[in-house]
Design brief:
With 164 residues, the chain is of the alpha+beta class. The chain has three helices and six strands; from the N terminus they run H-H-E-E-H-E-E-E-E. The mean pLDDT is 94.
Length: 164
């Protein structure tokens, strides 16, 4: 997109929408990886490759940091493998544009998003509450992507499922 060709306020609104969409797509991809079949897992990995830079620095709560979408895919796949169902509810994307791309400038932005995720087995459900803190960059070949992600834990809860 040529951000220089449109009104600066409109350009910022478009960029914020595009950046927020990265986090929403992340939630969808993570659920595909968490409980999907092989085709769903492959689709989730493809989404990760689209939303993260190839060398993205990715970390979450007590999980050791890794580099790149393929490594993060393995972390997520392994972390969610014991669950039968999972759902990532990601909202309130707050995007701050540091610079719009164009005129010799790199595109850079900061995003924070609130997370409420639950993961269940046959007997219990684990709820995780946290905040994603992302640094995003723009390149003409890939558009906006997440270059650095940190998931900060707020609370977790483990409880037995009630027969219903």
């Amino acid at each position: 997109m040529n951000y220089d060709a449109i009104d600066p306020q409109l350009a910022e609104r478009i960029a914020k929408q595009d950046i927020g969409e990265l986090r929403r797509r992340y939630g969808h991809a993570t659920d595909l990886i968490g409980v999907g079949d092989a085709a769903a897992k492959a689709q989730g990995l493809q989404i990760y490759r689209e939303i993260f830079t190839g060398d993205a620095h990715l970390e979450a709560a007590s999980i050791e940091a890794v580099s790149g979408p393929d490594a993060w895919y393995e972390v997520v796949r392994d972390a969610l493998s014991r669950y039968q169902a999972t759902q990532h509810l990601i909202g309130s994307q707050i995007v701050t544009i540091e610079s719009l791309p164009g005129g010799g400038r790199d595109g850079r932005a900061h995003m924070e998003s609130y997370l409420s995720a639950w993961h269940s087995t046959a007997d219990e459900v684990m709820t995780f509450i946290g905040t994603y803190v992302d640094e995003c960059v723009y390149s003409p070949s890939h558009g906006w992507q997440i270059a650095k992600m940190d998931l900060i834990a707020t609370a977790t809860e483990l409880r037995a499922l009630q027969a219903g």
